[in-house]
Amino acid sequence: MKTDSISPLPAPLFDLPFEGSERAAELIARINEFLLGELDALARTHGVDHEHGADRSLLQQVWKRSQALGFYGMTLPQAMGGLDLSVLDHVLIKEAIYASGSPFAPHVLGELSGPPRVGALARQATPWQLQQFITPVAQAEKAICFALTESEAGSDAGAVQTRAVRDGDDFVIDGRKRFISGSPFADYAVLMASTASDPAQREITAFFVDLKSPGVRVESGYKTMAGQSHTGDIVLESCRVPSANLIGAPGRGLALALGRITVNRLLHCPAMLGLAQVALRDARDYALQRRQFGRAIGEFQAIQHMLADMATELSAARALMLGTARQIDAGSEARAEASMAKLFCSETAFRIADRAVQIHGGEGIVQGRRVEFLFRMLRMYRVLTGTSEIQRNTIARELLAPRA
Ligand SMILES: Cc1cc2nc3c(=O)[nH]c(=O)nc-3n(C[C@H](O)[C@H](O)[C@H](O)COP(=O)(O)OP(=O)(O)OC[C@H]3O[C@@H](n4cnc5c(N)ncnc54)[C@H](O)[C@@H]3O)c2cc1C
Questions:
Q1: pTM
Q2: Per-residue pLDDT tens for 299-347?
Q3: How confident is the model over 141-172, as pLDDT tens digits?
Q4: 228 in any annotated domain
Q5: Nearest C-alpha to atom 48 of ligand 1 is from which residue?
């Protein structure tokens, strides 16, 4: 993002009433001030943009400041300093963070390697695990990643081949995790390994693993298509993990990991739609400013219709996201709806980015333009955290399940 600045606060696309609580509105105002003031200045000073990430010490500075301002741990349970936010408020706050266009967006709440990675586990953790792993993450001292995927266990997450074999008071873990977000700068991992004595059986157990312990290394030589290097492989070779690091009950790891999958699927939507808003805003501004044939290209009906379709589809996706958040807050399981939201928001956000590139013409395909980055970034969400096909499977399963 070399040519576009994120400050000052962009004007809203439409005048709509805010749908969250007063507390969420106040938090969003304070977070925007943080993002567009202090963090924007930090990004400029250190040359950080979406594709030129910050190093660990700079990230830690961001996490610490966010924690001091009361943002970093807000998604944790109340007992750990969290705000007990409704899902609707959480979604709206996250959407606003991503709509700011800041390259530090994934670090304000600590989604990549902070409290949201451990929030659900806090209820399962022993007092020792809380003190050893979760509190340091909540206090922005340590970073943590979530390691489930392997090269042979992607959509079929239960096919994990990494093995944890009991040896006295320890487990000895061997295997390789693939595509683990935040692993290149994480201290710990919540890692899923098979504890089945028969490798053909599926019995997956969750462990806290210290990534600095002997027998573990992170290989992070690859970049995603969005140009980022946040993702790495965790290689475990005879890595000894104390049995005190086992989370919950043996064999319950996948249930633990997938326990909040419905909410987690929904919670990816505000990131996509926040970024799609940035794309729409950039396309609108470019259409007003770029002149061809003696007039602004925004005067051509073809361009107007593209903008209208982008805005309409964005509103529809937002309505699905917010409606699903309300259903979950009202106590519904909303399994199909959360998958519909993940499917529809990710596909819609990508179409919006595609049209934004089209409206920018040649400028839109020059590397370094924000729309070009958004196009690549938004393409990824159709694969991450359950591909579009896997979401369709969930929706169809719910639709076809026999009803009482
Ligand atoms: C940038 C990035 C960050 C990630 N971060 C993490 C992380 O932090 N932690 C973690 O554990 N994982 C992470 N992942 C892994 C991610 O969740 C998987 O990539 C994703 O679930 C898909 O798995 P796969 O890549 O193995 O694709 P595959 O499962 O091999 O799928 C390939 C294709 O087959 C289709 N397919 C597979 N099964 C079915 C089916 N039953 N029905 C219909 N179609 C099917 C898929 O939809 C897809 O089109 C990350 C991945 C990326 C790229």
A1: 0.94
A2: 999 999 999 999 999 999 999 999 999 999 999 999 999 999 999 999 9
A3: 999 999 999 999 999 999 999 999 999 999 99
A4: yes
A5: 387
Q: What is the CA radius of gyration of the chain?
A: 22
Calpha distance 259→253 (Å, rounded): 10
Within 6 Å (CB) of ligand 1, which residues are found? 145-149, 154-155, 179-181, 224, 231, 380, 383-387, 389-390, 393
Number of domains in the chain: 3
Distances, alpha carbon 107 to alpha carbons 66, 117, 324, 398, in Å: 8, 12, 25, 34
Q: From the alpha carbon of 181, which atom of ligand 1 is closest? A: 8
In this structure, the residue with its CA closest to atom 40 of ligand 1 is 390
**CATH number of the domain within which 192 lies:** 2.40.110.10
Q: 82: exposed, middle or buried (C-beta count within 10 Å: 0-12, 13-18, 19+)?
A: middle
Pair 385, 264 in one domain: yes
Atom of ligand 1 nearest to the CA of 157: 21
Quote the CA–CA distance of 34 and 27 in Å, as a whole number. 10
- The total number of residues written for the chain in this structure: 404
Residue 97 backbone dihedrals phi, psi, to 5 degrees: -60, -45
Contact 151/176 with Cβ under 8 angstroms?
Answer: yes
265 and 394 assigned to the same domain: yes
Question: Distance, CA 372 to ligand 1 centroid (Å)?
Answer: 24
Asked whether residue 311 falls in the same domain as residue 381, the answer is yes
Q: Per the structure block, which two tokens stand in for 261?
A: 């999958």
Pair 241, 170 in one domain: yes
Q: What is the DSSP string of 11-59?
A: PPSS-----S-HHHHHHHHHHHHHIIIIIHHHHHHHT--SSS---HHHH
